Amino acid sequence: MNVQGKALRTIFLADDDWRVTIIDQTVLPHQFQLLHLSSLSDMATAISDMQVRGAPLIGAAASYGMALAMREDASDTMLVNAYNTLLATRPTAVNLHWALNEMKAVLVTLSEDQREQAAYQKAAELCDEDVAICSAIGDHGLPLIESLWQAKEKKASSEQRVNILTHCNAGWLATVDWGTALSPIYKAHNAGIPVHVWVDETRPRNQGFNLTAWELGQHGVPHTIVVDNVGGHLMQHGQVDMCIVGTDRTTRTGDVCNKIGTYLKALAAFDNHIPFYVALPSPTIDWSIRDGVADIPIEERSSREVTHIVGRTQQGNIQEIQIAPDNSAAINYGFDVTPARLITGLITERGVASRTVNNVNSKDDAGLEAPLAQLFSDKLPKNR
Amino acid sequence: MNVQGKALRTIFLADDDWRVTIIDQTVLPHQFQLLHLSSLSDMATAISDMQVRGAPLIGAAASYGMALAMREDASDTMLVNAYNTLLATRPTAVNLHWALNEMKAVLVTLSEDQREQAAYQKAAELCDEDVAICSAIGDHGLPLIESLWQAKEKKASSEQRVNILTHCNAGWLATVDWGTALSPIYKAHNAGIPVHVWVDETRPRNQGFNLTAWELGQHGVPHTIVVDNVGGHLMQHGQVDMCIVGTDRTTRTGDVCNKIGTYLKALAAFDNHIPFYVALPSPTIDWSIRDGVADIPIEERSSREVTHIVGRTQQGNIQEIQIAPDNSAAINYGFDVTPARLITGLITERGVASRTVNNVNSKDDAGLEAPLAQLFSDKLPKNR
Fold it and tell me: Which end of chain A is less crowded, N or C, counting CB atoms within 10 A of the terminal residue's CB?
């Protein structure tokens, strides 16, 4: 997507063709700063300090971390060391594990003098694959936006734009390009459909303001930022035509575990008969579980993310301030689970798995499990 | 309620028996500072700068503002001037208007030499009346908490505390004492029931962290602060036994207009079969309207409240920082409407108006209108 008018990926090779360039996401939206990483240690720090974040981007970054390591030292010792070092940066990230295994599988079979080149090549392939998946999600989501626009365009009385609400950041900053939830929105914008995005702040880490608003602004997509409390009111007053969010983990029944607060927006969408879509690359589907609320453990993060917040002073400095009383306990759950019954459809790289009837009480509602299984019949666990 | 171990009201006479003492609520929770106001102009500034806020407290403050004015100059000219000056501080506050009318009605009938003493006396009476109303709300809400506790206490397996979620600040800081939503909680705590309160941050003005958490902490009520996104997750996991919130305006059918985000918590409570109560002094009931979503205009406030936030630096200074990108538009709705169908009951100074069946789909559900009208039959508009 565009930054300052120029198309950019979130991770790419510097002009010297070996250093790895990333956007330092910890200082967004206040500073746009590219970092050129030249070692395994640089990349490990970038991932653990969250200069790069978002499951797909973490995977891509780790694979380039392996390439940088092989450039430093292509020995078996380094291979093991690099794998372990990168794996330890974000222990719960599934994509990280997967990408490192992909890299290792290629590299162990090669002699030391072949490893550097092969590692760069494989890392580039993994990045391109991610772009292809995200682009496909956008292509499958685009018709949903198009049909809302066609219906609205015909009514002279309605506002001449499609209003889409999103939560957190499932944009190109979380992936290599396009994003997941934002991919259909970028495709629609690029196709000339007048989309407007309501961007939830997404406390406590404020990824909505810091990342989603910034990337939409850079690409020129009209948007308005709101605090997390506002979505229900907007929906009650016809100001939201659809919601699209991402997901970190999806059950085979279609329950989704996404950033804390997603469930509240899904409830409001359901209460106001507004389509609620979740965009996801299929690797986030966990075919082994059925009940998201009961079976997905929720990460509890540092209470400091709740009690303190970072921003920019009038003088232009990045500053952290305390916003809670000294002696109040704080708890910080990172995610919540939205039951499939509140979700209209899942937008995947293979197509949209959607329910036929958007009403949990209807006898005709077959849920999301069957349509999802149909799209991914080759991936279903063999024993079921 | 207690501050630093000592019982305090939010507004009272200083030791010299004529200056009016308030808590500067703009620097909470970081600094506890009493201000001694000695003139009409001091009080007008305190109200307009929100050093005092909350509908009942604004009314009380305005009445003492009239008393200070009469001490300065008890002429008819000053009476009119003081009335108009105070009325202009917060133009939409209904209690402000009501309290000023009460004061004026007493003062206009008196000679100049009687006015100062009468004004102080009437202001004290209005404060005592507010305390009595809030205390009665607490007394009527207390049995609801007691019965939840009795049910929980019997089960050895359950957590030995009653968990209550609240949004924004409807505590004693918004009134003269006790508060509205927090009044039943203080009564329960004082009665030895182990209550624990989940305090919503309440973006964008953060009254939950700044005020509710601070006042609960000062009075010794166990509580945990959470961002606004968390409540749904807590409810899904059995960590909330009931919700109690306040309201700024209530329709005769029981729809409530309260701080933005209340509707989302009511949806989550309903989805998880958790009782959702609204506490209110009867003057907030607007008997002239039936449909809150359609008929209550929602205040749109400055976008700066969304894009900037105030807190304390490590050095102990109060500092404002920017937390949004420079070029993103922001919108700031102050309130939303929670439909009566999601509300279990309304806790008033005369008793609890509650539905018989907590299920919108049930044919037996008579809603909240009839029980509310029964409590306030003497206040119903004559022409209906």
Answer: C
